[in-house]
Design brief:
single chain, mainly beta, 8-stranded antiparallel β-barrel
Length: about 140
């Protein structure tokens, strides 16, 4: 049976560096290590490695995308352990921002061993970041 977990998260660290960049490029590529803190159905922290592309770093509506591998450590609906999410997002180009992703099968440890599921994120107009996990534990 699938369970939905919702958590608010805050970015607690961001270290980005550009790569493969020429002055003529119409895109800006970067790598970032991102740290987050979660509260809600998921309580804990994570570290993610992101690859990002932005048409204009000052205007995400111009076009942007990211892919990430993220290790989560914490307690999910009362069960403690770790798991890995692989996810991404796109914005701009006349379409609404959207995210996509999965919990990597076999990545769960502790009481989260056997976790599988999907991952989505949302940013509210007030800037609040929310993570939704639709998951199963076998």
């Amino acid at each position: 049976m699938r369970t939905r977990a919702l958590s608010v998260f805050h970015v607690t660290g961001w270290e980005a560096t550009p790569y493969d960049q020429d002055a003529d490029d119409a895109h800006h590529l970067s790598r970032a290590t991102v740290r987050k803190a979660f509260e809600g159905d998921l309580v804990g922290e994570s570290t993610a490695e992101l690859l990002m592309c932005q048409a204009d770093p000052e205007d995400l509506a111009a076009g942007a995308g990211f892919v990430a591998s993220e290790v989560v450590r914490g307690t999910l609906s009362g069960r403690s352990g770790t798991f890995v999410m692989q996810h991404g997002g796109l914005s701009g180009g006349g379409t609404a921002p959207h995210t996509f992703g999965n919990i990597v099968p076999g990545s769960g440890t502790g009481e989260l061993e056997g976790i599988t599921g999907t991952v989505t994120g949302d940013v509210a107009p007030d800037g609040t970041h929310t993570l939704a996990l639709d998951y199963e534990l076998t």
